């Protein structure tokens, strides 16, 4: 029987090959898109799952209920970890983790490597297996280091690494270390990435910060005992705050803190490490490259939308074809076919089409995977589909699609009355209503994606073109490199470029502007008491000519100058910081930023966006404090041939620092990289909107062809009675256009709500204008009209004699 079903199905599918081909195309494209989107979501959700102790690993963060807003911060002071370990028996293991970079020397080879300063428990908490060497306690001694297989190959080549001595320069002072173990390379779905692990006692400033509870500069992770009541442990942590942070609590209360439900103004909390990568906004910032939960939900929704549109196409096309197969059903019933047999026949056809679409869709996904990975910096592979969870998901999705797409059309055809069918009269009222509802849903989703595309495109265009308050077009940002003394490197490179006619100015800074090729982005915030209340300001360590190099406007006072020896203790502040100081004359004010000496304000400059447009411009203070290093060199060049200037500076850098890679980039490139997530989302919206419209139009074409066939006689009669071709085209297209217009109206409030929430993540953003919705609706209606009117025109041009003969 099954064999007969398959034979009959092949004949029927070939007979309706045009419409089945459209079904196949729509489903294949949808499956390809969904495969890539769902694999991306699965990969992001799989982060850190390889850690065997994952359920018991947590990260500390502070919550400060300040008067202005609630602040959450995962940076911890140096003495916190030992104190927690001593005071709380629930903690099985604890480790501090801080990032750094170093110039590693072995023999005559020098390479730059990524360092993590950690405690002994690090490799016991996290699962990074040891491939060679001491697997029990590889960081037992202060000068022990663990390197990855990748770093071992880069440093030693084919030589054995265990027991070798390497020299590392990570804060301007070369030191010798012994390689005690080689760890396996961390997987792609690891939030923590490193080349070398070394003891936290080597972290710059460690000794000075041993008793400093206010200086917070690293992350702390713990492994709790498996039987620990987590909520109870977090409650017991609150006794830790007044014991060690009493001064911070007093300052917060003094400045008008708003206590939480339990009456606390400052709390120490723990976040499950399993939530480390996917940031839902409920916790403090975490180490690693995190993605927002809303982005993953958006990807899932888009994938579901596209698949749903393709399923609607399948249903509508199958229902439309049911009219042409009505006589076949009637004959089969007359010859004794049962409903179960007819249902089986139609379902076999559906399964064959869906299975073919699945194979073609996976093939398309495989073919476009390299381009997808390149565009979205993704690490997904098609091999992920072979895992049990993925296979079961695919099987469940396949059964669901075949059920949704095959059951309803088959049910409609089974309900036809045999006598009416054989007479050629079929009641199509109900199928028409369902078809229209599905069409409205389909184009509502398509129009929604168009609205999202237009708004994201407009916001990204706004982000690219809004003045940031500094010169981003002609300024080159160069990371100093790991292990180098930034101040010495700046002085040396200033001498090298001195006299270069293309170089206008040069300076150095602690923080970059935007995100450069080194991928690093940091910020420092300092708080101090002034006139009885706390002032919090971002700190940027700079060198001479910083304002001049970046074309930042000075509105009062002066910039740092070599003519004044006391400028090493002076500061220059932005307008927002001047407002906080609230003095009659800001210039000349002494700020108690340091315990030993006051910092005198010598100038005020215009506000500029030193962070992304997600954040409002906060108070900013420029300092020349030697405790901050120079990590970036900024070079302003003359407008004109920027490419030539870039190549010239690159060559001089390589000649001056032969062991340090040149990773220079223009500031406009750096600032755009801050919005990678939004750019990727915008690209996905655009691609999804195009795919959704194409799939919708495929179904619209097929349905319009079917309806034209059903109305052939009507068209012939209207032409005989004098209707023009234009009138017939408008008549046949009108019903579809009304449905698409209704779909657009339904999508508008949903689109406004979704995108308004998305824009709320930006401190500076566009206002959603009415014309965006009008344009989205016009695009959808125009596409639908062109699609349907072509078929209507073909039907209208048919000779009425042939039309009347057809029935």
From TrEMBL:
It holds the Pfam family FtsX. Residues 22-239, 529-646 form the MacB-like periplasmic core domain. It is a multi-pass membrane protein. GO terms for cellular component: plasma membrane. Its main location: membrane. GO terms for molecular function: transmembrane transporter activity. Keywords: Cell membrane, Membrane, Transmembrane, Transmembrane helix. Residues 301-415, 688-800 form the ABC3 transporter permease C-terminal domain. It is found in: Cell membrane. The chain crosses the membrane at residues 21-43, 296-317, 346-369, 389-416, 437-457, 684-707, 728-748, 768-788. This is ABC transporter permease.
């Amino acid at each position: 029987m099954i064999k007969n079903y398959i034979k009959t199905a092949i004949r029927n599918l070939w007979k309706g090959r045009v419409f089945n081909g459209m079904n196949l195309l729509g489903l294949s494209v949808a499956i390809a898109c969904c495969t890539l989107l769902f694999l991306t979501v699965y990969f992001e959700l799989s982060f850190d799952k390889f850690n065997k102790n994952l359920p018991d690993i947590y990260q500390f963060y502070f919550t400060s209920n300040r008067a202005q807003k609630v602040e959450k911060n995962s940076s911890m002071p140096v003495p916190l970890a030992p104190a927690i370990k001593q005071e709380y028996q629930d903690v099985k293991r604890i480790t501090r983790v801080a990032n750094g970079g170093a110039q590693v020397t072995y023999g005559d080879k020098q390479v730059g490597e990524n360092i993590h300063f950690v405690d002994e428990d690090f490799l016991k908490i996290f699962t990074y297996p040891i491939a060679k060497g001491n697997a029990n306690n590889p960081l037992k001694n202060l000068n022990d280091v663990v390197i990855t297989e990748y770093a071992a190959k880069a440093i030693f080549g084919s030589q054995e690494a265990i027991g070798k001595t390497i020299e590392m320069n990570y804060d301007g002072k070369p030191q010798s270390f012994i390689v005690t173990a080689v760890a396996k390379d961390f997987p792609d779905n690891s939030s923590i990435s490193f080349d070398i692990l070394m003891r936290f006692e080597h972290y710059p400033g460690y000794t000075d910060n041993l008793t400093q509870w206010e200086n917070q500069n690293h992350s702390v992770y713990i492994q709790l005992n498996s039987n620990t009541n987590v909520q109870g442990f977090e409650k017991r942590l609150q006794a830790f705050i007044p014991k060690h942070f009493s001064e911070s609590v007093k300052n917060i209360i003094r400045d008008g803190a708003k206590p939480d439900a339990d009456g606390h103004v400052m709390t120490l909390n723990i976040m499950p490490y399993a939530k480390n990568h996917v940031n839902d906004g409920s916790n403090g910032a975490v180490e690693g490259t995190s993605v927002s939960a809303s982005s993953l939900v958006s990807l899932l929704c888009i994938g579901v939308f596209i698949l749903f549109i393709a399923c609607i196409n399948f249903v509508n096309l199958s229902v439309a074809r049911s009219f042409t197969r009505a006589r076949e059903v009637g004959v089969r019933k007359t010859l004794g076919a049962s409903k179960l047999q007819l249902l089986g026949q139609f379902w076999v056809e559906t399964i064959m089409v869906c299975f073919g679409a699945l194979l073609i869709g996976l093939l398309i996904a495989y073919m476009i995977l390299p381009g997808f990975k390149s565009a979205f910096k993704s690490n997904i592979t098609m091999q992920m589909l072979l895992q049990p969870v993925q296979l079961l998901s695919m099987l469940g999705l396949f059964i669901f699609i075949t059920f949704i797409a095959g059951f309803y059309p088959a049910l409609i055809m089974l309900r036809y009355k045999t006598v009416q069918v054989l007479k050629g009269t079929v009641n199509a009222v109900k199928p028409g209503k369902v078809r229209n509802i599905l069409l409205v849903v389909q184009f509502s989703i398509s129009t929604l994606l168009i609205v999202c595309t237009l708004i994201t495109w407009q916001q990204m265009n706004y982000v690219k073109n809004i003045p940031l308050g500094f010169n981003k077009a002609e300024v080159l940002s160069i990371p100093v490199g790991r292990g180098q003394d930034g101040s010495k490197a700046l002085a040396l490179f200033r001498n090298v470029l001195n006299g270069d006619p293309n170089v206008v100015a040069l300076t150095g800074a602690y923080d970059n502007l935007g995100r450069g090729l080194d991928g690093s982005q940091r910020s420092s915030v300092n708080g101090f008491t002034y006139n009885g209340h706390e002032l919090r300001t971002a700190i940027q360590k700079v060198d001479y000519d910083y304002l001049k190099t970046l074309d930042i406007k000075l509105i009062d006072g002066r910039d740092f100058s070599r003519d004044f020896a006391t400028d090493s203790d002076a500061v220059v502040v932005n307008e927002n910081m001047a407002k906080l100081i609230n003095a009659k004359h800001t210039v000349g004010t002494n700020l108690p930023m340091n315990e030993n000496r006051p910092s005198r304000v010598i100038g005020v400059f215009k506000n500029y966006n030193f962070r992304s447009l997600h954040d409002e411009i906060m108070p900013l203070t420029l300092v020349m404090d030697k405790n901050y290093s120079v990590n970036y060199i900024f070079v302003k060049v003359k407008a004109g041939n920027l490419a030539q200037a870039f190549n010239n500076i690159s060559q001089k850098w390589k000649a001056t620092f032969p062991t340090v890679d040149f990773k220079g980039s223009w500031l406009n490139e750096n600032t755009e990289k801050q919005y990678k997530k939004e750019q990727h989302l915008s690209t996905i919206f655009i691609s999804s909107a195009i795919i959704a419209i194409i799939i919708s139009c495929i179904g619209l074409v097929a349905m319009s062809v079917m309806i034209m066939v059903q109305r052939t006689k009507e068209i012939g009669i209207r032409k005989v009675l004098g209707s023009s071709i234009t009138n017939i085209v408008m008549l046949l297209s009108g019903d579809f256009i009304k449905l698409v217009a209704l779909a657009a109206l339904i999508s508008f409030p949903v689109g406004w709500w979704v995108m308004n929430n998305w824009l709320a993540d930006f401190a500076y953003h566009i206002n959603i204008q009415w014309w965006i919705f009008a344009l989205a609706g016009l695009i959808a209606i125009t596409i639908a009209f062109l699609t349907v009117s072509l078929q209507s025109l073909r039907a209208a041009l048919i000779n009425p004699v042939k039309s009347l003969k057809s029935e």
